[in-house]
Amino acid sequence: MSELAAEQHHLNVLHARLDALRKEAAAALARGHAPDVWRAELARLQAVEDGLCFGRLDFTGGRSVHIGRISLFEGDEPLLVDWRAPAARPFYTATAAEPGDVVRRRRITTRGRTVVALDDELLDPDAPRDGLVGEAALLAAVTAERTGRMRDIVSTLQTEQDRIIRDDARGVLVVQGGPGTGKTAVALHRVAYLLYTHEYLRARGVLVIGPSEVFLGYIGQVLPGLGENRVVTATVPGLRPVAVTEVDSAAETERKGSADMASLLAKRVRAVVRVPDEPVDVEFEQQLLRLDASAVRRAVRTAGETGMPHNQARLVFQREVVSALAEELVDQLESVVFSETGEALDGGSADGRLSEAELRALAAAGVVLGAEDDGPRELLDDVDREALRTALLGDAGVGEVLDELWPPLTPADVVPGPWSAADVPLLDEAAALVGESVPVFGHVVVDEAQELSEMAWRMLVRRCPSRSMTVVGDLAQTGSAAGATSWERVPGPRRLAQLTVNYRTPAEIMTVAAELLARHHPALRPPRSVRGSGELPWRLQAADVPGALAALIDEHTDGQLAIITLDVGELADALSLPVPPDLTGKVVLLTPDEAKGLEFDVVVIADPAAVLAAGPNDLYVALTRATRTLGVVHPGPVPPELSSLTVR
Ligand SMILES: Nc1ncnc2c1ncn2[C@@H]1O[C@H](COP(=O)(O)OP(=O)(O)OP(=O)(O)O)[C@@H](O)[C@H]1O
After folding, report:
1. What 8-state DSSP symbol labels residue 499?
2. Any ligand 1 atom below 6 A from CB of 56
3. Ligand 1 site, residue 185, Cβ cutoff 6 A
4. For ligand 1, is residue 405 a contact (CB within 6 Å)?
5. Integer CA distances (angstroms), 337 to 327, 328, 376, 543, 610, in order
6. What spacing in Å lies between the alpha carbon of 180 and ligand 1's midpoint?
7. Ligand 1 atom 15: the closest Cα is on which residue?
8. Ligand 1 centroid vs 634 CA: distance in angstroms?
9. pLDDT class of 88 with cuts at 50, 70, 90
10. In angstroms, rounded to a whole number, what is the distance separating the alpha carbons of residues 320 and 302?
11. How many CA atoms are closer than 13 Å to the CA of 428, on its beta-carbon side?
């Protein structure tokens, strides 16, 4: 039997096993037993159909294992090892220089259920080293036409990526890497790895944060394809569903993103508590009670000292005030008996019995006087006092006074609308200050993390108090005015990892991007492109930009074409392209901000000077989106940053 036929035979066995498991799951689901569990299991088994098995390791001594998306067994015999299992690790880490006991690594390419190619690497310590694992398969993957949906890279993960994926779950791992270094891909594979490795994370959940809904759609297929359906994905504003209708200026975005807002909001919340200078009159069952300003001050202090959020501390405040009021009432009642002159006061009877009003007050508190009761001193034991406090608390008039002194708050009281995206972290902060809780996750992944404001980070820490986080981004791509220029704002303690190889952008394009980077971020190193395309980036001067673009679209045949520009409105009309963009279209029109994290076969930047004026980072993002060809169409003089492009 040929090697290909042998692998086909094994793949048939694997799919037969997969089909059997699906049947079992479907039958269990039909029986109605633990439907959620079986539905999820069925979805997991369905999602691993494509590329079920993609590799094989042969070890010294003749043993071999097949590597795939999930583990499969026939009885005790392992048919397929999950790529995340320790046994699969050498598939990603073994090198010719350090082969361990691996003698051969085989990449198996399948189409549907058919094996179409084998790519063998003999791990011979004497062979020349190129640093790339499985170069042929890798190059095939990175040059494949783009579809508008991200694919997983499980069969071609590189060693520096593998190391990050399997890094410790605890603490904050920050991954800095230039464009196309696989940060998004690595972050998603790490989620799959952590969920596989740590049972507790499956129970506590993982949250993946992305920069936009379009981006979340782009990455949406990756985790299900890796057999993980249980991850929550969201944008930062999406974590708190409120109506975002406003757009802030850059200065406003920066101001609202600053950590100073946290103390400002805390101050705003504290300021609603009123401490009067004069005693406050409180009416209860037609009795007038006097609440001393000092008693209010004491209650505010006691409530404040609990450190509880506003609405919870309010309850403490209320209990304190009501205790003071109850004491006042008791004093009044007791004074009937114990007035200095021995006289009954306030209409009480001379023998120390109580007035009508006092009886009503006691009745409201549920204190019932029997005929044998002499007076309130003996009557008002601890239970009665508690009943009195409860009655005071439940009284509408008393409640009104309490609410005036310490009003209950909603987040919208603290941060009134209408709201912009930058208000959402402020509303979230306000929610925490007033005492609303949020769902908590076992691990949080943040993609395009350079865009997050300090206030957004606070929002995420509230959702992950354990601070088990994976944070990936590129400081050279920061677009938001409230975004980061260093990783210092990421909650600590943090450890930093780097990705250095660009799998997306060909060397010819990266040379242009590197010049821009050198001008504006001299401290940052551009990533090294894994390949060249043989196509030089070009520029075209055209007074009629929409006309020039229409001609380019007409000429375009292969793969996806993206037009990146600052002002999409005008071009959308002229070129009849959808806004917001449809990523599955043949031609996609979008802003640099929307293009963040995405990639296309061909990219044309319209009016690069305008993009540059918005910020060099925006132009850097736009320049690094193409997997094959880059062009710019400029109506005026070309920015010096792009003067080296070939004139078309
Ligand atoms: N090991 C790999 N094998 C095959 N393809 C890879 C590998 N690593 C990355 N890629 C591909 O490179 C492209 C860029 O990856 P990804 O989007 O994760 O990069 P990024 O660092 O997040 O980029 P950016 O900062 O520009 O958003 C994707 O198409 C991804 O599939």
Report:
1. E
2. no
3. yes
4. no
5. 16, 15, 8, 99, 87
6. 5
7. 182
8. 29
9. very high
10. 8
11. 25
